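Key idea: predict the complex, not the pieces.
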Amino acid sequence: MAFDPQRALADLDIIAARTGGLDDGGARRLCWSDEWLAARAYVRSELEKLPVEIATDEAGNLWAYLRGDGDGIVAVGSHVDSVPNGGWLDGVLGIAGALEVLRAAADRGTPPCTIAFVDWADEEGARFSRSLFGSSAASGHMVPAELADLLDRDGNRLEDVVAACGVDLARVLEAGSRLQGIRAYLELHIEQGPVLESEGLAVGTVLGTVGVERARGRFTGQAAHAGSTPIRQRRDSFLAAARTALELREIALRHGGVCTVGGATCTPGIVTAVPGVTEILIDQRHLDASVLAVMKADLAAAATRIAAEEGCGVVLEPIWRIDPIPFDDDLIAIARAAVRDVTGTDRALPSGPLHDAAEVARAGIPTVMIFSSSTNGISHAKEEDTPREHLALALEAYGRAVDRVVGGADA
Amino acid sequence: MAFDPQRALADLDIIAARTGGLDDGGARRLCWSDEWLAARAYVRSELEKLPVEIATDEAGNLWAYLRGDGDGIVAVGSHVDSVPNGGWLDGVLGIAGALEVLRAAADRGTPPCTIAFVDWADEEGARFSRSLFGSSAASGHMVPAELADLLDRDGNRLEDVVAACGVDLARVLEAGSRLQGIRAYLELHIEQGPVLESEGLAVGTVLGTVGVERARGRFTGQAAHAGSTPIRQRRDSFLAAARTALELREIALRHGGVCTVGGATCTPGIVTAVPGVTEILIDQRHLDASVLAVMKADLAAAATRIAAEEGCGVVLEPIWRIDPIPFDDDLIAIARAAVRDVTGTDRALPSGPLHDAAEVARAGIPTVMIFSSSTNGISHAKEEDTPREHLALALEAYGRAVDRVVGGADA
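Result:
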């Protein structure tokens, strides 16, 4: 039986019915929880119907291997875990697509090469604020000692929580051996943004994950009485921050990236005082590392100029950064062709959010992703949704792209 | 002996040495505390050296009457209480000035009319966030039932705390009888702002206290992923709030008032999300009620226009307001003349902060204030200071103005 998007949609409905979806407050598959394990148990039960070898690696990632004739492994996967009150599609769409890849391939007999299915553990990082747990362990970018003492909201240590699920934090990097022999990784995901929908498109090909520069901007002026300090004698840190936030939008538009001020905190922060200190959280993203560097420099120049004009000082304290991770040109071409064949449209776009695919690509494995549209661009919320016909088209394109890669030279 | 500013300065030094000043972390005369009582005890001890009748009224205000020949009473006073880690001059400068008025008048014999000294209780409201306790009780603008259950940081009820100082909250409005017969009230205070200093002036006359309009501006856009949402598809509540804050500055400059955004709060307020909701605290002030009304309308128009341009909604929720309280024209003229005589300069300015004098004026009693300069415009902080020569000039001008009013027609 051929790759059937409807079977994958049925899997999604079952998982949503068991562990939360659109109609009951959203997904509850927080990693390392009972409901996460329940969703995994369903996936495993479906895998057990196929002629595959199932294994869980040292980082808690679930693998299933459909052995093939040729050399090299093509890997397919995503994650079943969700944020609390999350959406019914984030992650699990790719799991349903990968599962259907195995079903269709097994139906046709021994594939031209081995196909590996993977459900990465704790992609969201929603419990310990540390995302991409399983895939970063496999890629070797995790430093386990940095994670051991992270606490969840109830004060539980990460090391203890993962141990209860059979994961020994000291050994998680051994999961890296699972990447040996993988010559391609393909992942299907919802866009989690409004680009495809706004252009009337169901499916798109992902060029890579954007680079991110995050900083805390601390503007220091002079706290002063709101009633007794004339406007022209103020050094208002909030107005300096406000002008910088507006300039950040111009920087993003000028360079075709995104810049966001996610929050602001004023000190003393009372209605009767000019804010002496204002801190803003700044996030800048671009797919091109050199353009991102220019955006970062533009921010520094703008903040310094504006602060001086407002009689304030400013310090931009880096919080976190990651380089852009471009996907593989050949796989991008295959995915674009598959999307074009299925939908009649061809749109390639960067991914703003990170994904397990980024960790796999960082490990040097050729990687690509396919996105379905996201209704209203909403994700990480119970309202997250995608028209079922868009999901079916995305699944179909994904199945075709994997077929082409698995088929290799004869494709 | 004539009015002697140096005696008043010596009082200030003694009170600072006993209850906190410039050199030891700031004033500690938090109302209803032991150190407040200690400062009052010093004032009372000085009053007891004079031929005055001393009384504490039902609201905890300390009065002393130097009886005179004619009808009508001229009142002089301010407050000895301070904010925590406050300045050595806020309030107590006016107490020292008023005390010196009594000393000089008593020295000259029976004055042409009775002079009433008053130390208002809990002007600052620093403990229960309710300022002008004693003066608002006397003016009749307090609603005691609203205050009974206010709690301080340690969970103590206002009603219990004032009771420990002999004040029965149910009877505080009876202090209003103290205002009967008062035909003028004069108060000396530091400016608590930078206007006089920036113009190189030591002393100024106060035209009244400004009207205040306070609101919480709540901008509602759409929370969205900072990575996946293109700039042009955002409805960013923070940027709408930022533009409104900058426009507020233009409104203040256009109308000669002040406007302040004291704080901002973003939801979800994380670096990875476009803020869906941003709240800002807005304060607008002007001495002219009709201009303040225009400023308020300008804010509403600007916020509505900007929010619409940003794809957001906005609600301006009123928090608190007070009308401008203009001081008495005749007393202003007398005070300006006294300041001019002493300093050779004549500057009249509104007061941004409220004062006990505003409550007295609201009660229908002709009122005026004189300000000394404030170094760097700083107040409510241990760094609060004023050059001693400015304090001496302000005290001298205050003494002359009171003399003129007490002297009546022959002045």
